[in-house]
Amino acid sequence: MILNITPNQLKTLTFFFVFALFSLSQETQAQTRVYANSATVSNASHVDNPANAYDGNLTTFANVKANAGLAAGLGAYNGYIELQFPSTLPANTTSYVKIETQDDLLNALLGGNLGGLLADVLGVVLTGSQEFTVQAKNNTTIVLQGDSFDDGEFATDRMRIIVDDAGDFYVMITPNQAYNRIRITNRTGSLLGLGAQKNLSVYGAYYVTNPANCGQPVFTSFSASGLNLDLIDLGVNGVQNPENAIDADPDNFSTLSFGVLGVAGTIEQTVYFEGASLATDEFTLRMRLTETLLDLNIANNISVRSYNGSTLVQDVSLSTLLTLNLLNLNGGEIISIPIAVGAPVDRITLEFSSFVGLSLTQNLDFFGVVRTAARPEITDPDTLDAQGCEGSTIDLFADTDVANELRWYDAEEDGNLLATVASGDPFTTPTLTTDVTYYVAAARIGCPEESLRIAVDVTVNSVATPTGDAAQSFCSYGGATVGDLIVNEPNVVFYDADTAGNQYLDTDALTDGTVYYAAIQDAVTGCESATRFAITVTLDDLCDVTLNVKVLLQGALYGTGTAIMRDDLRTQGLIPVNQPYDDSMDARFTHVGGGSETTTNTIINTNAGTSDAIVDWIFIEIRDTPTNVFKTVSALLQRDGDVIASDGGPLVVSGLPETFYISVKHRNHFGAMGLNALTVLNSEVTIDFTTIDDADLYSLSGFTGSNAMVTINSVKALYSGNANYDDHIKYDGAANDRQVLASQVLNHESNTNQVLNFSSATGYLSGDVNMDGKVLYDGAGNERVIIQNIILTYPLNTNGLSNYNGMVEQIPQ
Q: Is the CB of residue 196 less than 8 Å from the CB of residue 67?
């Protein structure tokens, strides 16, 4: 199976390859090495410190000696040490013996099939100088043997010289039969002079029962074919510095090189893992080519073979491994080649074939191979199409094997590790501010190596911040709720904190001094404003209240026979645009907060011809106690008795307490007041003086509610006849109202003869008690008789006296 990834993903894996090399050595991987724990030697004098070879410490060694002896072989000997394991190892179990020769013999044998040629170049010989033999034995039976004088015996999958990242040499032994000991024999060759001695260091032998989970190769070797002694020159060809492909330096590399030799041949380097991979594991091979080789079809001259022991599992060319995204390579750049084998393997071989006849430098830099867990899978639909709200977090999910963990990052390479979670567990993102991509890699628990990172795109839905008045006032007694808060946008919810916090219900009561935080809630995504709009609430004890007042005037009802008043003053254009009341008329009309009300002729005449036509100005008192006027307002009275504001709208009075009394007064009528305090409900109060019960009317001591208002046509109305503005209606006696009529008639500007029977005293006059636009003292329908009849019919004037002095306004002064 071939693994396809993008160049950026390759860079990501390159980073982790580097990280892994720096972070973990072969000695710290989670594995179990079983060392040989006893030894026998050829002769005590032939082996120095034999116990060092089975002490489990690969930094100490036994010295196995060999001597050419004197003439005729006198005194010559070959030394050996035989290391025994605690138990018999099954067939095909690989063990490792760390050794060191006196000459550069192992460096030659490391080249596998090149061993003999390399020995000649290095100035050592495989026969006739120092020689050694390695035997795997089952008790006394030899099951596998390799001799240094035959380089081919150390170039097989059963017996091979390998090197670790420190440049130390090992014999890798894999017999096809069971064995329990390994004998290493040191010999002197026939070319050495008499008395010559050669030393061979044996550090120990071990096998692995619990292979390392982590994915760094431990050993390497190389080989070649198609080369001969004339072509071998380690300065330009062969494999240079093979251990650099597995060391801890990410910038180190080995070089597979043909130099400029255009001959038919191959060079290969193999890296070995202590233990087989999982079938799901992935590998990444890192290499570098020159620009000139990229111009050729180099991909077909490089292949990668994967083995499990001696069994070839996969053999693919670079051209097969490279995806379209990777074919556009740049010379001199390190490229990462991902490989998915799909079966357990324990070694990877990189093979480089030369171009025949090419007179260009043919080098391949090999940076090594790393083994990782398979990349995570993402199946969660909400992660595949991740959507988040600005200012919030979301959970992302990925899956890997239970033996692995998931590591989440903020960048495709490098970046910051944000979280490490188990497979299937959520990764909770940081607070989202804008569209963002997170990356997840799988890693075996406890290992630094990671898979390629998988990108997870998150779309962040942003919602605007509400706007409006940051300081809002409400009535403390108006039952104001969160739903009464005002912003300029729809779909708003409120919280008790600028972030997180608890959401209010619209029905929750507002509290004084509290800050409420508004967020727009998107109807489609459900996302809310990341930044909330703060509204500070003030609850006022004095509030705006709509007064729903209805009252009728006796004077304007004369001659109607209905409960709809006449609007003669309006039709004659006599109603002033400025409110007419002040304390110069009488203390009864002293303003508290009011007095500046004005209207327009347009408003006065808006509803002409209807029951809403304006009759006159009315004077409203708001009292916080029956005897204390808290506030006054002048308003307009309609024909049906409704009281409206001077601007033609509802009568809204600001700065009122929760409970109060209402009294209504008119300039030439008695006023009336409700007996009971009114309580504001939903920012309004209602009092209808036209239908009010007598028991609900305020009355002075000695009076009753039936004395406060007159009943006409089955409705109540204010008593008319109070021409002098005071709190009595009188026909005779001091300060009587009849005299006001006489005075206004006699002094009218049109009454040049000053006669009492003058019939044209028109105007906005208090003596006009029937409100027809003029004052009559004599003649038909005159006001004098109207006043007299009002007094005579007053319920308490039981003797029918014209000079009755007990008709008093039922409002406390």
A: yes
The token duo for 60 is: 């100490």
Mean pLDDT by groups of 10 residues along the chain of 813 residues: 36 38 39 92 96 97 92 82 98 96 88 77 74 97 95 91 95 97 91 82 94 83 77 61 90 84 82 89 87 66 92 89 54 82 94 75 87 93 96 95 94 95 96 96 90 94 96 91 97 95 97 97 93 96 96 97 97 98 97 97 97 98 98 98 98 97 98 97 95 98 97 96 97 96 97 96 97 96 96 97 97 93
Q: Which residue has the tokens 């409420």?
A: 516
In which residue are the tokens 């890192």 written? 286
Q: Spell out the long-range contacts of 508-512 with Cβ–Cβ below 8 A and sequence spacing 24 or more.
A: 508/481, 508/482, 509/479, 509/480, 509/481, 510/474, 510/480, 510/481, 510/482, 510/484, 510/485, 510/537, 510/539, 511/537, 511/539, 512/476, 512/537, 512/538, 512/539
Q: Which amino acid is at 224?
A: A
Which residue in this structure is represented by tokens 């982590």?
214
DSSP letter, residue 510: P
Q: How many CA atoms lie within 13 A of 673 on its CB side?
A: 25
- 484/650 Cα distance (integer angstroms): 20
553 touches 720 (CB < 8 A): yes
- Asked if 439 contacts 454 with a C-beta cutoff of 8 angstroms, the reply is yes
Task: Report the alpha-carbon distance of residue 179 to residue 156 in Å, rounded.
Answer: 18
- In degrees rounded to 5, what are phi and psi of residue 26? -65, -25
* Nearest alpha carbon to residue 188 among 303, 55, 67, 317: 67
Among the listed residues 636, 637, 622, the one whose alpha carbon sits nearest the alpha carbon of residue 592: 622
CA angle 36, 37, 40 (to 5 degrees): 90
Q: Please give the pLDDT value at position 238.
A: 73
678 touches 624 (CB < 8 A)? no
Q: Residue 389: how many CB atoms within 10 A of its CB?
A: 20
**CA–CA dist 456, 454 (Å, integer):** 7
Q: Using CA atoms, how far apart are residues 101 and 184, in angstroms rounded to an integer?
A: 12
Tokens of 605: 């005449």
CB 171 within 8 A of CB 159: yes
At a CB cut-off of 8 Å and minimum separation 6, what does 311 contact? none
Q: What is the C-alpha separation between 31 and 213, in angstroms, rounded?
A: 7
Q: Is 23 helix (H, G, I), strand (E, B) or coil?
A: helix
* Unique residue bearing structure tokens 């619990």: 210
Structure-token match 């982790």, residue found:
16
With contact defined as beta carbons under 8 Å apart, do 551 and 620 qualify? no
Measured CA distances, 485 to 204, 527, 683 (Å): 83, 21, 15
β-pair partners for 370: 284
The residue with tokens 């209240």 is: 545
What are the DSSP calls for 724-742, one per residue?
Answer: TSSSB--SSSTT-HHHHHH
- Beta-ladder partners of 547: 685
Amino acid at 22: F
CA-CA distance, 593 to 460, in Å (whole number)?
Answer: 56
pLDDT score, position 354: 82
Contact yes or no for 559/566 (Cβ under 8 A): yes
Half-sphere exposure of 135 (CA within 13 A, CB side): 14
Rounded to 5 degrees, φ, ψ at 382 are -75, -20
- Tokens of residue 401, six digits: 């094997």
DSSP string across 222-236: EEEES--TTT--TTT
Residue keyed to tokens 């706007």: 467
In terms of DSSP bridges, do strands 62-67 and 197-210 run parallel, antiparallel, or are they unpaired? Answer: antiparallel
Q: What is the pLDDT of residue 29?
A: 42
